[in-house]
């Protein structure tokens, strides 16, 4: 029997990068997956495992769309066990603090932090009704260490850790575990391919920060997500796993 047989999962940002890898990995381990994205690429992900993965086109910064996709998971499968809040963007509001545009601040916080709030807001009641669940929120090493021009990105990712801990404390008695992953530099993904096009040197510098002297692969993050989703992690909640190849050990 596969580790996630019978589990129903929602994975956001599943069109490319870590979300795509996570959707495929959860499906490979037996889960039925709703692969959510706003780009249209969720259909390509679902085509890789059509019996296990259903594409859902939704904007996870919109409460009504997040509510509808949770309702679709429950309507179709009768339950919800796993939520992976992967969606995140970088490269917006990337400037010294006085130069950050207010609209860019709002946009980055909305995509990175409000999406996690909305995912948990709508998934938790469905998980309570299902007898429990596992929520995994994508933070970043950017929540733990800093560099210039990352104030807002770092704040969004640190906010995710605070929300993760609070939700874990609130919902543990309902058998809902809530954890975060802090990836280091992961390649290739939509975000890092774009970074490579715009700042090729910065990307190779980021990769060399890891003790392993290479970027992480999206599949290596997906493997950790599958662990957190599974009952192998049954006593893990309210924390974050740093998956950075040893970057922050330095
Ligand atoms: N790539 C890295 O090096 C790295 C490092 C640390 C943390 N992270 C975090 O990991 C997560 C995944 O990163 P990635 O590089 O794999 O991402 P990615 O850029 O490859 O993919 C993000 C996906 O999210 C989708 N998306 C964006 N906004 C959306 C919205 N409003 N509604 C629905 N879908 C939306 C995009 O269409 C895209 O398919 C992000 O939260 C990111 O901040 C990434």
TrEMBL record:
Highest taxon in the source lineage: Bacteria
Keywords for this protein: Oxidoreductase
Gene Ontology terms, MF aspect: oxidoreductase activity, acting on the CH-OH group of donors, NAD or NADP as acceptor
InterPro entries for the chain: NAD(P)-bd_dom_sf, Sc_DH/Rdtase_CS, SDR_fam
Database matches in CDD domains: SDR_c
One of the Pfam families matching this protein, by short name: adh_short_C2
PANTHER family: SHORT-CHAIN DEHYDROGENASES/REDUCTASES FAMILY MEMBER (PTHR42760)
Family from the record: Belongs to the short-chain dehydrogenases/reductases (SDR) family.
Protein name in UniProt: NAD(P)-dependent dehydrogenase, short-chain alcohol dehydrogenase family
Organism: Parafrankia irregularis
């Amino acid at each position: 029997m596969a580790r996630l047989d019978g589990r129903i999962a929602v994975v956001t940002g599943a069109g490319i990068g870590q979300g795509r890898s996570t959707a495929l990995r959860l499906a490979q381990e037996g889960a039925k997956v709703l692969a959510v994205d706003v780009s249209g690429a969720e259909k390509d992900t679902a085509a890789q495992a059509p019996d296990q993965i259903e594409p859902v086109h939704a904007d996870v910064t919109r409460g009504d769309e997040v509510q509808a996709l949770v309702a679709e998971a429950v309507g179709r499968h009768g339950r919800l066990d796993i939520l992976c809040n992967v969606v995140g963007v970088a490269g917006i509001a990337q400037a010294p603090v006085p130069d950050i545009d207010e609209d860019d601040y709002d946009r980055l916080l909305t995509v990175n932090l409000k999406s996690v709030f909305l995912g948990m807001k709508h998934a938790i009641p469905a998980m309570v009704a299902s007898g429990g669940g596992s929520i995994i929120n994508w933070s970043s090493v950017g929540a733990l260490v800093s560099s210039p021009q990352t104030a807002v990105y770092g704040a969004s990712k640190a906010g995710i850790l605070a929300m993760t801990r609070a939700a874990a404390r609130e919902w543990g008695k309902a058998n809902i575990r809530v954890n975060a992953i802090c990836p280091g530099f992961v390649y290739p993904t939509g975000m890092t391919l774009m970074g490579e096009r715009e700042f090729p040197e910065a990307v190779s510098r980021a990769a060399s920060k890891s003790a392993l002297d290479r970027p992480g692969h999206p599949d290596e993050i997906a493997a950790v997500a599958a662990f957190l989703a599974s009952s192998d992690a049954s006593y893990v909640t309210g924390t974050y796993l740093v998956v950075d190849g040893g970057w922050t050990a330095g």
